C-alpha cells in the first residue's frame, strides 16, 4: 500500500481548494505523527498579521513560524514575543530588508493593495558559503461590501534556493498559487430589461458561482551576479515571470477548461435538432451521390 | 476503553467529512486514500456507511435498474416512504420497480414491481416523457427521474443528473437539477448545481448553485397533462439555457474584473518591472539614510 503521506497528498489534490485549512487540520488530528511532513508539503492560505512595532501588515506562514509565534519581516520581532526565536544572521537580515522593500514595490505594481513578505534563511551548511534560501509570499483579498459584489483571494508562495557559481548563480524556484473567485447573483442584482417583460410571471432567481484552484510549478535558471543586490533582482525576475505564467494558465487554461466541461455536460443548442439536421444532410448527400447510377440505369 | 472509542468516532467523522467533499466520479479514489490514512478497514467499513448513503442521495447517484435498460436516480425523492433504514428501498417510477441499493458497490438488487398511485400517474408519466425528450435535446449523458407527490401533497419532483468522468484527462463534471412542480400553488421551484474538477497538475474546481422559481401560467394549469408537461419542461429548458449563458458571462466578468482586481496581468505601465531600477531606488534610499528623498537637487 502507498505511504500514508502520499494518500494525504492525493486526497488534498482532490478535495475542494476552498477547504484546504479545515482538511489539513483534520488530517493532522488523525495522524499527528505525519503532521510535520504534511504541513511542509501542503501549502495553505496565508494569514495576515499586524507588526506590533510598526503597525505594518505582514504574512504568517510555516516559513516564519517558531513554535506558536511568527516573525515580522519589518521589525524582525516575533509575535507573540519569544526570547530565543530564530532570526537570520545580520548579513542575511540586510538582504532580507532589501528584498522586502523590492517586493513591496512589486506588490504595489501588480496587486495595487494586498500584503507581501520575504523571509530568508542562512545556509544550513556553513561550507555552503553564501548559498541561502528564502520565501516570497503575497496575498490579496477582495472583500465585498454588498452581497452581489464579487469576492476573492489570491495567495502566492515562492520558495527559492540559490547556488553561487562564480559570477553566476543558479536558482531553483517552487511556486504555488491559490486562488478563489466568488460571484453572487440574484433577482435584485439583475438588470431588468424591458424586453424581459414577456418573461415568466413572478419569477425569482438566485445563485453563486465559486471558482477556486491551487497549482504548483517549478523553474530553474542561471543569472549573472553583479553585486550583493543581484540575487534579489534575479529572484524578482523569476518570480515575476512565474506569476505571469501561472496567472495566465489559471485564467486561460484551467478556468477555461472548467467552463468547457460545463458545455460538455449540457448543450445550449438543441442536440436533437442538430442530429436531425445532420441526418437530413447525410440523406441529401446520399441522394446526390446515388443519382447518376440510377439515371444511367433509367436511360439504359 | 472510552478514550480510544472517542478517537474512533472522531476519525470516522473526519473520514465522512472527506467523503462528502468528493468531486464527481472520484469517490472511490477518495475512499482509497481514506482507507490508507485511517488504516482500520473494520472500523471504516461499518462507520462510513451513513456518509456513503448521504453522498449518493445528495449527489443524485445513478443506478442501473434491474431488468430494464435504463438508469434511475438515487435521491430523497426516490426513497420508498415506509421502508426500514436497514432494508431501505428506492423507487424507479419509470419501470415501476423498487429495489435495494448497495451504497458502496452502487448496485441495485431484489427488484419488486410496485403499483403507482393512479390519481397522480398520468401527470407524472407526462412529466417524465417531456423530461426524457428535454434530456435528449440538451444532455449527452443525462438521466432523469420523475416522482409522484408524497404524503398527500401535490408536489411532483423532476430530477436530472448528467455526469462526465474523464480521469485519463484529469477532469470530471456533474450537473444536477431538481424541480418541484406544485399543482396547489401552481408554482415551479428548482435548483441547478454544477460541480467541475480539473486536476491536471493542479486542483481547480467550479461549484455553482442557482435557484429559480416561477408561476405556472394559467393556460398551462388548465391544459391536459401532456400539453402542460411539455409546456413546463419548455419553461425549464428556457431557464436552464438562460442560466448556462449567464454562467459564460460570469466567467468573462471574473476574468476581466475580479481576477484583475486581485492581481493585474501587467502593471499599469503595461511593462514588466525594471528590477535594476527597483533595486536602485531602494539602494539609493538606503544609502541616503534619513536624508531627504532628493539628495541631488
Automatic annotation (TrEMBL), chain A:
GO biological process per UniProt: actin cytoskeleton organization; barbed-end actin filament capping; cell morphogenesis
Database matches in InterPro entries: CapZ_alpha/beta, CapZ_alpha/beta_2, CAPZB, CAPZB_N, F-actin_capping_bsu_CS
Region (Disordered): 194-229
Cellular component, GO, one term: cytoplasm
Keywords of the record: Actin capping, Actin-binding, Cytoplasm, Cytoskeleton
Biased composition regions of type Basic and acidic residues, renumbered to the chain: 194-208, 219-229
Single GO molecular function: actin filament binding
Annotated compartments: Cytoplasm, Cytoskeleton
Role: F-actin-capping proteins bind in a Ca(2+)-independent manner to the fast growing ends of actin filaments (barbed end) thereby blocking the exchange of subunits at these ends. Unlike other capping proteins (such as gelsolin and severin), these proteins do not sever actin filaments.
Record's subunit section: Heterodimer of an alpha and a beta subunit.
Family: Belongs to the F-actin-capping protein beta subunit family.
Protein name, as recorded: F-actin-capping protein subunit beta
UniProtKB/TrEMBL annotation, chain B:
InterPro entries: CapZ_alpha, CapZ_alpha/beta, CapZ_alpha/beta_2, CapZ_alpha_1
GO biological process: actin cytoskeleton organization; barbed-end actin filament capping
Source domain of life: Eukaryota
Gene Ontology cellular-component terms listed: actin cortical patch; F-actin capping protein complex
GO molecular-function terms, A-Z: actin filament binding
Keywords for the protein's UniProt record, in alphabetical order: Actin capping, Actin-binding
Pfam hit, one: F-actin_cap_A
UniProt xrefs under SUPFAM superfamilies: Subunits of heterodimeric actin filament capping protein Capz (SSF90096)
Function: F-actin-capping proteins bind in a Ca(2+)-independent manner to the fast growing ends of actin filaments (barbed end) thereby blocking the exchange of subunits at these ends. Unlike other capping proteins (such as gelsolin and severin), these proteins do not sever actin filaments.
Protein family membership: Belongs to the F-actin-capping protein alpha subunit family.
Subunit structure, as described in the record: Heterodimer of an alpha and a beta subunit.
Protein name: F-actin-capping protein subunit alpha
Organism expressing this protein natively: Hebeloma cylindrosporum
Amino acid at each position: 500500500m502507498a505511504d500514508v503521506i502520499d494518500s494525504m497528498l492525493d486526497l488534498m489534490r482532490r478535495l475542494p481548494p476552498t477547504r484546504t485549512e479545515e482538511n489539513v487540520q483534520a488530517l493532522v488530528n488523525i495522524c499527528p505523527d505525519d503532521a510535520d511532513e504534511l504541513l511542509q508539503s501542503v501549502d495553505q492560505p496565508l494569514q495576515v498579521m499586524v507588526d506590533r512595532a510598526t503597525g505594518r501588515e505582514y504574512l504568517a506562514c510555516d516559513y516564519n513560524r517558531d513554535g506558536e509565534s511568527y516573525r515580522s519581516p519589518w521589525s524582525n520581532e516575533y509575535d507573540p514575543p519569544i526570547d530565543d526565536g530564530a532570526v537570520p544572521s545580520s548579513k542575511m537580515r540586510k538582504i532580507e530588508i532589501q528584498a522586502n522593500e523590492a517586493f513591496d514595490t512589486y506588490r504595489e505594481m501588480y496587486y495595487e493593495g494586498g500584503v507581501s513578505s520575504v523571509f530568508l534563511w542562512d545556509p544550513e551548511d556553513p561550507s555552503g558559503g553564501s548559498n541561502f534560501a528564502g520565501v516570497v509570499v503575497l496575498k490579496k483579498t477582495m472583500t465585498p461590501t454588498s452581497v452581489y459584489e464579487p469576492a476573492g483571494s489570491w495567495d502566492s508562495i515562492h520558495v527559492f534556493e540559490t547556488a553561487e557559481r562564480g559570477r553566476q548563480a543558479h536558482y531553483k524556484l517552487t511556486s504555488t498559487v491559490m486562488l478563489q473567485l466568488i460571484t453572487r447573483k440574484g433577482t435584485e442584482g439583475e438588470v431588468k430589461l424591458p424586453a424581459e417583460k414577456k418573461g415568466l410571471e413572478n419569477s425569482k432567481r438566485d445563485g453563486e458561482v465559486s471558482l477556486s484552484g491551487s497549482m504548483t510549478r517549478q523553474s530553474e535558471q542561471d543569472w549573472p551576479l553583479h553585486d550583493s543586490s543581484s540575487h534579489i533582482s534575479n529572484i524578482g525576475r523569476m518570480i515575476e515571470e512565474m506569476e505571469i505564467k501561472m496567472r495566465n494558465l489559471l485564467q486561460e487554461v484551467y478556468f477555461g477548461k472548467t467552463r468547457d466541461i460545463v458545455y460538455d455536460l449540457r448543450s445550449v443548442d438543441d442536440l436533437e435538432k442538430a442530429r436531425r439536421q445532420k441526418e437530413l444532410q447525410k440523406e441529401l448527400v446520399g441522394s446526390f451521390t446515388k443519382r447518376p447510377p440510377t439515371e444511367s440505369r433509367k436511360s439504359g | 476503553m472510552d478514550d480510544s472509542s472517542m478517537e474512533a468516532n472522531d476519525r470516522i467523522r473526519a473520514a465522512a467529512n472527506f467523503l462528502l467533499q468528493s468531486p464527481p466520479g472520484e469517490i472511490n479514489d477518495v475512499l482509497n486514500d481514506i482507507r490508507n490514512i485511517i488504516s482500520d478497514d473494520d472500523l471504516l467499513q461499518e462507520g462510513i456507511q451513513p456518509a456513503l448513503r448521504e453522498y449518493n442521495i445528495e449527489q443524485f447517484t445513478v443506478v442501473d435498474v434491474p431488468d430494464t435498460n435504463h438508469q434511475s436516480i438515487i435521491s430523497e425523492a426516490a426513497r420508498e416512504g415506509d421502508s426500514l433504514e436497514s432494508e431501505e428501498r428506492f423507487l424507479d417510477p419509470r419501470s415501476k420497480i423498487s429495489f435495494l441499493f448497495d451504497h458502496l458497490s452502487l448496485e441495485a438488487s431484489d427488484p419488486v414491481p410496485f403499483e403507482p398511485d393512479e390519481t397522480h400517474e398520468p401527470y407524472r408519466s407526462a412529466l417524465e416523457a417531456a423530461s426524457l425528450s428535454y434530456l435528449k435535446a440538451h444532455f449527452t449523458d443525462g438521466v432523469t427521474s420523475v416522482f409522484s407527490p408524497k404524503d398527500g401533497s401535490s408536489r411532483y419532483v423532476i430530477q436530472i443528473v448528467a455526469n462526465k468522468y474523464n480521469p485519463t484527462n484529469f477532469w470530471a463534471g456533474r450537473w444536477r437539477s431538481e424541480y418541484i412542480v406544485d399543482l396547489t400553488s401552481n408554482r415551479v421551484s428548482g435548483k441547478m448545481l454544477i460541480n467541475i474538477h480539473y486536476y491536471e497538475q493542479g486542483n481547480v474546481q467550479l461549484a455553482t448553485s442557482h435557484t429559480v422559481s416561477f408561476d405556472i401560467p394559467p393556460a398551462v394549469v388548465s391544459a391536459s397533462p401532456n400539453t402542460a408537461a411539455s409546456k413546463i419542461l419548455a419553461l425549464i429548458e428556457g431557464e436552464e439555457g438562460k442560466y448556462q449563458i449567464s454562467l459564460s458571462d460570469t466567467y468573462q466578468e471574473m476574468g476581466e474584473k475580479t481576477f484583475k482586481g486581485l492581481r493585474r496581468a501587467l502593471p499599469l505601465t503595461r511593462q514588466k518591472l525594471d528590477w535594476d531600477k527597483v533595486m536602485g531606488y531602494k539602494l539609493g534610499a538606503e544609502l541616503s539614510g534619513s536624508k531627504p528623498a532628493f539628495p541631488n537637487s
